């Protein structure tokens, strides 16, 4: 029986190849959607796990996480530097790192921060040292620059027609270990230098120590360029300052610190994390757990996934309908062959088995090839996304994928039975006369 099936497949190799490819492409579409969606969830969740608590000015929590954790450029309102001073002095805080963004170099985002974040972000460096002067920088693992190289910050990006700053040129002092996050493509510089080249001086505070920025990010005489750096619209006037590349860093944060778009906080305990979030969710600040924000975002992505799965299922249904049509035509063309087998004494059960096994083999090969193609497609898409975002997106099969394979094979079993039943019911006399 096996030899007969193999010989039949060799004789009808072109039609068999078409069946296999149709099934493979339909299967690959569904598999790639499932694998890519899972890779996106895992990659983003692992990236967010490195940051316990993010504090920013009042506004969109989702945008705060996308900008500070995933370094997606977007206008953010500024909060008073007094918030950083309070966090630095809070006994519940292990460390608090300010971040400021808006500049770039060769497509890599430049992030102003502190030595504390540079030391704790990746667990160390692969080469060089942490910046200790205003004109030094530390690069992420995926930044294709060399130690000692020069970085000339550009306000915004080249695509946006950004302007290159001439006040300060950074020199690369070290390279961080890989983190699998967007920070692998970041250039970390002292926020002290960012403040200086943007003309952001220490703030004057009233007697009660409170100083607030408007969440709308509009201009004022003292902080116009600060809001522009956060991405807000401006009247076109630039506020440049002076910077000394050899100046030592001063990270004793005080209430006079310039405004900030976000602060990354490492609480000492889980209980401290929840207390801090509660304390900074009132007034003009918002505190979020990145993981919680991603959970809400996943709910939206879940709707998109359902749409994609529905499209993939529709494609598979169309392929199934096409295969039914091909099957009917195929059995019609083989009527004389089946009639001859029946005339030579082959029982109906044997005819059923030969036809079913042959068609099921084609479907099973198509499903297996579809899983391989879907996996390859997900790898390519994840690689492209990782190249641009820096986030490592792990592509792999999970236990539930075995259930998907079982469902497809069960469907193949039923579909293969259709031509087998047609062959089983066929009369040998009628077949030979056809």
Write up what this structure looks like.
The protein is of the alpha+beta class. The protein is built from 13 helices and twelve strands. The chain has helices spanning 2-11, 13-48, 61-68, 82-89, 115-120, 191-197, 224-229, 270-279, 290-333, 335-343, 348-389, 399-424, 428-433, and strands at residues 53-57, 93-105, 108-113, 125-128, 136-139, 150-151, 154-155, 163-164, 170-176, 187-190, 262-267, 285-288. Strands 1, 2, 3, 4, 5, 6, 7, 8, 9, 10, 11 and 12 form a twelve-stranded mixed beta sheet that branches. α1 packs across α11 (348-389) and α2 packs parallel to α11. The chain is elongated and about 95 Å long.
SSE run: HHEHHEEHEEEEEEEHHEHEHHHHH
> Distance N terminus to C terminus?
25 Å
* Total count of helical runs of at least 4 residues: 13
Biggest beta sheet summary: 12 strands, mixed
Q: What is the total tally of β strands?
A: 12
Specify the structural class: alpha+beta
Shape: elongated
**Overall radius of gyration:** 31 Å
Low-confidence stretches: 204-239
Mean pLDDT over the full residue set? 79
Report the sheet-strand fraction: 5-15%
How much helix is in the residues? 40-55%
């Amino acid at each position: 029986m096996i030899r007969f099936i193999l010989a039949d497949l060799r004789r009808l190799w072109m039609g068999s190849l078409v069946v296999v490819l149709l099934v493979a492409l339909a299967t690959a579409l569904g598999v790639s959607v499932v694998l890519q969606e899972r890779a996106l969830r895992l990659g983003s969740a692992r990236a967010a796990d490195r940051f316990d608590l993010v504090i920013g000015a009042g506004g969109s929590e989702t945008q705060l996480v996308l900008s500070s954790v995933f370094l997606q450029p977007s206008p953010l309102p500024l909060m008073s530097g007094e918030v950083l001073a309070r966090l630095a002095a809070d006994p519940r805080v292990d460390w608090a790192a300010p971040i400021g963004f808006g500049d770039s170099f060769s497509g890599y985002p430049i992030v102003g921060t502190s030595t504390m974040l540079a030391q704790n972000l990746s667990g160390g460096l692969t080469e060089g040292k942490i910046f200790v002067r205003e004109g030094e920088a530390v690069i992420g693992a995926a930044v294709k620059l060399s130690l000692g190289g020069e970085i000339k910050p550009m306000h915004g990006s080249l695509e946006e027609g950004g302007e290159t700053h001439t006040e300060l040129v950074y020199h690369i002092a070290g390279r961080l270990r890989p983190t699998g996050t967007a920070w692998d493509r970041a250039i970390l510089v002292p926020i002290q230098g960012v403040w200086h080249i943007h003309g952001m001086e220490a703030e004057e505070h009233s007697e009660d120590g409170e100083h607030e920025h408007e969440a709308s990010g509009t201009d004022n005489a003292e902080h116009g360029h600060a809001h522009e750096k956060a991405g807000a619209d401006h009247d076109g006037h630039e506020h440049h300052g002076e910077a000394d590349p050899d100046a030592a860093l001063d990270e004793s944060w005080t209430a006079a610190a310039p405004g900030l778009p976000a602060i990354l906080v490492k609480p000492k305990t889980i209980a401290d994390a929840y207390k801090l979030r509660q304390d900074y969710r009132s007034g003009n600040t918002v505190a979020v757990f990145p993981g919680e924000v991603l959970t809400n975002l996943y709910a939206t992505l879940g709707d998109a996934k359902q749409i994609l799965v529905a499209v993939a299922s529709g494609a598979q249904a169309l392929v199934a309908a096409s295969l039914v049509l091909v099957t009917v035509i195929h059995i019609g063309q083989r009527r004389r062959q089946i009639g001859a087998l029946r005339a030579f004494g082959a029982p109906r059960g044997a005819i059923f088995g030969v036809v079913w096994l042959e068609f099921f083999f084609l479907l099973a090969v198509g499903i297996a090839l579809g899983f391989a193609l879907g996996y390859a497609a997900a790898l390519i898409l994840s690689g492209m996304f990782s190249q641009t975002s820096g986030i490592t997106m792990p592509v792999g099969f999970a236990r539930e994928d075995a259930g998907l394979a079982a469902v497809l094979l069960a469907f193949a079993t039923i579909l293969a039975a259709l031509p087998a039943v047609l062959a089983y019911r066929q009369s040998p006399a009628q077949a030979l006369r056809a």
